[in-house]
Amino acid sequence: MDIFSALQTAVSGLRAQAFSLDNISGNIANSQTTGYKRIDTTFVDMIAERDTKHQVAGTVAAYSELTNTIQGNLRDTGVSTNMALNGNGFFVVQKKSVDSGGGTAFSATNLYTRRGDFAPDKDGYLVNGAGSYLTGASLDPATGQTASTGPIQISNDLLPAKATGTITYSANLPRTPTTTGAKANGGLLPAFASDRDARVTDGNETGKTVAAGDDAQALIDNSIAGPALTVYDASGAPVSLQTRWAKVANAGGTGDTATKDTWNLFYADKSSVSGNQSSWTNVGQAFQFTNGQLTAPAGGTLAIESLTVDDVPVGPLTLDLSGGLTQYASSSGTVSTNTLKQNGYASGSLNAVDVGENGVISGTYSNGKTLELARIEVAQFINPDGLKPDSLGNYQQTTSSGEPLTGLRDTTVVGANVEQSNTDVASEFSKMIVTQQAYSANTRVMSTAQSMISDLINVIR
């Protein structure tokens, strides 16, 4: 290696250390940038091809080394639409533009970022501080079905009312109900003397109405309280539904004359039940049990075409008993309710949003309902450090990164948080000192080589 080669090597060293300082300065400058991933520098020696006994150091080249797999600290922001990824992966974002007609348009190319300081813009789209729009699936809150895919838009529209369509109910009915008339009738509902058409004692004459008055009082005295809940009609108006269970037959007999434990369910035609002032209607089904297990209705569901409370029609309804309706001995002689809920609600306005660990954005409405509004899209790569850095904290897919793999896998989404830069300022200062010393050493090589050349020239003179 001659003096001139030493000069070239020193120059390559200056370039490499300057490149390293460039990365260090960028890391320090972005130490407070949300979701920033520092860029390290790796050096590679460039050996000149020589005989094995005459190898020389040659020159050096510097390359950037991404740190996309190194997690930054999470910081609580208190902003509900902010989110951070705890683990591998990137938010999928798009850029916004304006089309020829002045409308909103988005780029067809996906970009990837760890910057999760998303907040709704004036149109409800979730955009981060760098102007990138979060993509995923926007859901219809009323049905839970996907309404659209692409940039996520959180609508502030009024949530329409939903009529009750299903009542989910599970409970245990006592084998012997404790009623006012239990001693006289063995806990069974007697025939109604004043209204023969309303007889339900055999469990088969269902759908009949017990008129207010003496017969209503007889029903109350010989039945036990059933499920009571608020349901909603098509306009979202709440209706208080009161019910009673009446046992109409005990198991017994054999062959064709065998009977099963049989119950009837009645509902009141008034939401505010006062003694015998309300009429009661049989829902139209004999609930039969064998050895404590429900055998009818088949499938554990009952379709109720309609019911009317306070002159307000509600229905059609499905009474879902698949969770378990049983009849086992009970010391209290009353109904033990395990599950009682319905799927209707009044209209409501959006009060708040929340981001779950599974990437689902939920909205809480003024009517008390919490419904899913969107599912964010998260992409992972086999080689995340193979992505190409783009401006504004975004990355582009490359052949080195591989195809994006959608899904969270071992990653969780942390709402109301952002990921901080993974730059360690103290470490960067240490690297800067080493870089400065290496740069100065290369300049000394150049000055020494210059001095040697001068000495050589002086010899010739």
Task: Write up this protein.
- It is a single chain.
- With 461 residues, the protein is of the alpha+beta class.
- It is 16% helix and 35% strand.
- The strands form ten sheets. Strands 5, 8, 11, 12, 29, 30, 31, 32, 33, 34 and 35 form an eleven-stranded antiparallel beta sheet that branches. Strands 14, 15, 18, 19, 20, 21 and 22 form a seven-stranded antiparallel beta sheet that branches.
- Strand 9 and strand 10 (126-127) form a beta hairpin.
- Helix 1 runs antiparallel to helix 4 (425-460).
- The protein is elongated.
- The two termini are 24 Å apart.
- Residues 193-206 have low confidence and may be disordered.
Helix content estimate: 10-25%
Rg calculated over all Cα atoms: 38 Å
Counting DSSP E segments of at least 2 residues, the number of strands comes to 37
Give the rounded overall mean pLDDT.
Answer: 88
Give unreliable regions as ranges: 193-206
Oligomer: single chain
Total DSSP helices: 4
What is this entry, summarized?
The chain is of the alpha+beta class and about 450 residues long. The chain has four helices and 37 strands.
Secondary structure layout:
Elements: H1 3-29, E1 39-46, E2 59-66, E3 74-76, E4 83-86, E5 90-94, E6 96-98, E7 104-106, E8 111-113, E9 119-120, E10 126-127, E11 133-139, E12 146-151, E13 166-173, H2 182-185, E14 209-210, H3 214-221, E15 224-225, E16 229-232, E17 238-241, E18 243-249, E19 261-268, E20 280-282, E21 287-290, E22 293-296, E23 301-304, E24 307-309, E25 312-314, E26 317-320, E27 325-327, E28 336-342, E29 350-355, E30 360-365, E31 370-376, E32 378-380, E33 388-389, E34 394-396, E35 405-406, E36 412-415, E37 417-419, H4 425-460
Parallel strand pairs: 13-26, 13-27
Antiparallel strand pairs: 1-2, 3-37, 4-36, 5-8, 5-11, 5-32, 6-7, 8-34, 9-10, 11-12, 11-31, 13-28, 14-20, 15-18, 16-17, 18-19, 19-20, 19-21, 21-22, 23-26, 24-25, 29-30, 30-31, 32-35, 33-34
